[in-house]
Fold this sequence. Notes:
This protein is α+β, with helices and mostly antiparallel strands and 434 residues long. Among the domains are: 5-111, Beta Polymerase, domain 2 (2-Layer Sandwich), CATH 3.30.460.10; 112-265, Poly(a)-polymerase, middle domain (Orthogonal Bundle), CATH 1.10.1410.10; 322-353 and 377-381, no CATH class. The chain is built from 14 helices and 9 strands. Strands 1-2-5-4-3 form a 5-stranded mixed β-sheet, with helices on both faces. The two termini are 14 Å apart.
Amino acid sequence: MSPRPEEEKMRMEVVNRIESVIKELWPSADVQIFGSFKTGLYLPTSDIDLVVFGKWENLPLWTLEEALRKHKVADEDSVKVLDKATVPIIKLTDSFTEVKVDISFNVQNGVRAADLIKDFTKKYPVLPYLVLVLKQFLLQRDLNEVFTGGIGSYSLFLMAVSFLQLHPREDACIPNTNYGVLLIEFFELYGRHFNYLKTGIRIKDGGSYVAKDEVQKNMLDGYRPSMLYIEDPLQPGNDVGRSSYGAMQVKQAFDYAYVVLSHAVSPIAKYYPNNETESILGRIIRVTDEVATYRDWISKQWGLQNRPEPSCNGNGVTLIVDTQQLDKCNNNLSEENEALGKCRSKTSESVSKHSSNSSSGPVSSSSATQSSSSDVHGSTRLFRSSSKGFQGTTQTSHGSLMTNKQHQGKSNNQYYHGKKRKHKRDAPLSDLCR
């Protein structure tokens, strides 16, 4: 789910196409990115949020809409102008990539919010991982859109920040922390313990909970705090969660996730039926085939053709690093090569002394084998792509393909099978994704 370099490249091309149309209309206009693409917390299907700054008496929504249609930047039926919304925007879908884009005018809050999010992600390195999983969790349940009563990205982020502020763990500010435990505890808090009726969320000044009764005293015209009251740290008096009328559905979904994950990592989980058929995280999150196919298409269009061929180990398994980088990985290749050369020369001399003329056959065969191995593997160490070993299509040294069926009956020493691990309460996210 984490963004890939080729996905960022594709999205920047979409931004550049739209920006070129805007600059053609208004050369002095300033186009800025905000939202999840700006912060890096976007899913493969997330929108791109753009804001255009300029001087107009009336917002030029229809002018830009006409120009986008004229340049065929967007699908004909996808361009929509929402001029009656609280924040007027243009919505469109890029004609080539199918990426959805929202364009607003002269709105500062989005850019400021992106800067705030970046500051908190520096303080809490776990935040990006936690938020991406939560966004995917809500997306597949249609609970991620504010206009349908769900929780938007900004609200979700503020909830995650409040969780880390008020339920501190020593490892929350440390990279490579135990993400799995934090995820389960997040679901436990907002699915079971948080009092939505009486309590609001505030992240300013180190974070705190606020009583809704006290908040209502300062609200004008008899307004009441929403079910999911989240104080906007950038705009005093703004309730970020006021439009999330489906907050109780979100609460139920979080409670469900807590129950499922808690059972999955309990000591008796190994006795559950079909325990090994799916990953732990896969019990609450699914990535559809359509999304997987879309990401593969992006990789082919923007990734592979501009990337040097990856180094392989002769079995079709991509190495973790390219051969040029292996010296930096403390593999001591030069010393190994020198030692191997001496060893081979001594072996050849020894064989020639003890084998007379008939030794030419075996020695030639051995030499050919070494040469073939060198051609295929080079002088690099070989890396497996996973702890369970490579089990897909295998490439031989002659470039031919051998399927798993062709390997049946052969020695199992070609494959490495890791030991089954017992699930513990403090299961890291890497275990949840196994």
